[in-house]
Amino acid sequence: MDTINTQALHKVIPELLDAVLGNLLAESPDADRLHFIVEHVNLWIMSRVPQERVRAIKSSTALLRYAVTLPEFDVSDL
What we know:
Blueprint: H1 3-27, H2 31-45, H3 50-69
Helix pairs in contact: 1-3, 2-3
């Protein structure tokens, strides 16, 4: 793989991860599902690898932003 493809892949992966996490939440938009997803992303936040921590924080932030835009997101448990 050349450098250009490697750089492009590095930029695409976080966007794909955010889309997958958002789709998981959209399947069942409630606080329990959000907690389940964030619990798993938290493993990356505790990583010793700085890039993984940064990616986890950005993905968590994107997921929370997405959650509040879902009209059917159930906040009654919060």
